[in-house]
């Protein structure tokens, strides 16, 4: 917990030469399926799942097993923020059959209300005025235009003047955001984002996905996509995650994601992270499952020291 607390203000502690750089050139730690530290095994199976899974999930044991594969984080939003995580991967859905427009986090099973998660994040920002976060709403399920309007109004209500308005990615520096007292960049992968000045288009936050269980294929994919990022002029997410296939789940049903894929492969992934460098041609945002398992956030934050060495030389 001491290490987590020490990273709560890492952005505000950067030397001026780094806080003047575009955020797209800094190394920033993020989490994959950031909200999934709690999912409700008593809730219905989400609309992000196939019909066959929904049928199977009528058996209560199946939902308990689903939970083992749906949870990709152990830390709450507050704990992730304290540990230094600044990018959040968010997938959301309405609850079919529920009255009103309430929106929930979702990954196989429903999580908490989006409202509650965003309030927790905003509370952190209120106490750490120089920290900046990226909220990436990249999957929407069972949502019509009314649901989107409801969610966007909640985002606006919670963060208010902290929301960063859209501009050229290269102009977004910590110093500029501090001057404007803005702390939240919201990416919204839906055409409705064009109407709102504080919703950034999803194409400004590409997050190529390796979709593999093989750690060596993953690392090769991360290298390839990094080499292609410079030409786009965007932020960039390196998803350092392994994705279970159906047969992976079937073979290791009761073990879950952490014990099957994450635990043994995170050290190799961390070694790859340690070999990286931020900058125009380098890494920007790096995400992982179970970010507390290794010194994930601290290792990424320390990569920014390499930029300092460049300046000195």
TrEMBL record:
Residue spans crossing the bilayer: none
Ranges for the Phosphatidylinositol-specific phospholipase C X domain? Answer: 21-189
Q: Name one GO biological process term.
A: lipid metabolic process
Q: Which GO terms describe its molecular function?
A: phosphoric diester hydrolase activity
Concerning Pfam families, the annotation shows: PI-PLC-X
From the Swiss-Prot or TrEMBL record, give the protein name: PI-PLC X domain-containing protein 2
The record lists the organism as: Python bivittatus (Burmese python)
Lineage here is: Eukaryota, Metazoa, Chordata, Craniata, Vertebrata
Q: What gene name does this entry carry? A: PLCXD2
